[in-house]
Specification:
The complex is a heterodimer. Chain A is mainly α. Chain A is built from 3 helices and no strands. Chain B is mainly alpha-helical. The two termini of chain B are 23 Å apart. The chains are: A mainly alpha, B mainly alpha. Chains A and B meet through helix 1 and helix 3 of A and helix 3, helix 5, helix 6, helix 7 and helix 9 of B.
Chain lengths: 75, 189
């Protein structure tokens, strides 16, 4: 879990940790430390680059399906 | 959506099942869900001339329904549902990763969307189908966040969940949705 990641000297995180951060970022901004860890891991991990693009595509489709990308509207 | 190409009521009625599924999941009661959807459709019919096709019809209606559901949920604290029991851990995803937390090469699916499915509507149908496979409690909490846009704290209070439990539920939902959608993206048309 992202909260369990030690915060000393931006230690490396695993692919599994990365999925936690990608999910968490959907709910609240990552801490600067978490953002650095995520960026550092993504830079060197081809599988996580694929997975994070898949998540981004999925999230964009969810936004469309659930009308989160439309201007607020009422009737 | 081609505004004016169809009878408004016919077009609106076509979106009713989708809206009803969203409302029923959040409101628990079939009667409340039908009321909220009916209000949405009646309001949309009244405002039809102002709609002008600026969004898809479903998106427009989904946005209207969201406000009605949020108002109803907030007006009847505490939540109408029993507290959600969240099993510990995320062991169900162990097969996706090696023991040291890397993606397991045997189970990693690298399909991107758009490779075989070009139509946006098809992609959205896949997401909706995958969402309907989530357990009901998971789907309800996931959509409180992703559809209703409620903050984690409000969901925790409303559903009597800890922050850690809620985050596990949201994580699981997103991981399951990814697994389900990437498999469908990889299927030939």
């Amino acid at each position: 879990m992202s909260d369990n990641i030690t915060t000393k000297n931006t230690p490396a995180i695993t692919c599994r940790d990365t999925t936690w951060l990608v999910s968490s970022a959907r709910d609240q901004p990552l801490t600067p430390q978490q953002a650095r860890q995520l960026a550092a891991h993504l830079a060197g991990c081809a599988a996580c680059q694929v997975a994070s693009r898949q998540f981004a595509q999925l999230f964009a489709q969810l936004d469309t399906l659930l009308a989160r990308d439309a201007a607020p509207d009422d009737a | 959506m081609m505004n004016g190409a169809r009878d408004p009521w016919q077009a609106l009625a076509g979106e009713r099942p989708f809206l009803l599924r969203l409302a029923r999941l959040q409101l628990g009661s079939q009667a409340d869900a039908e009321d909220a959807v009916q209000d949405t459709l009646v309001g949309a019919a009244r405002g039809w001339n102002g709609y002008a096709g600026r969004a898809t019809l479903r998106s427009w209606l989904t946005g209207i329904l969201r406000h009605k559901i949020v108002d109803l949920i907030r007006s009847r604290r505490p939540g109408p549902h029993a507290p959600v029991l969240v099993p510990d851990g995320e062991a169900e995803f162990d097969g996706l990763f090696t023991p040291d937390g890397a993606w397991h090469p045997n189970t990693f699916v690298d399909t991107m969307c758009g490779a075989t499915l070009a139509a946006q509507r098809q992609l959205l149908d896949i997401v909706e189908l995958c969402m309907r496979r989530l357990p009901e409690d998971t789907a309800r909490l996931f959509l409180m966040r992703e559809y209703l846009g409620m903050e984690l704290k409000e969901i925790e209070e409303h559903c009597m969940l800890t922050n850690a439990n809620l985050r596990v539920v949201l994580y699981r939902a997103r991981m399951r949705l990814r697994q389900c959608t990437v498999r469908s993206w990889g299927e030939p048309e």
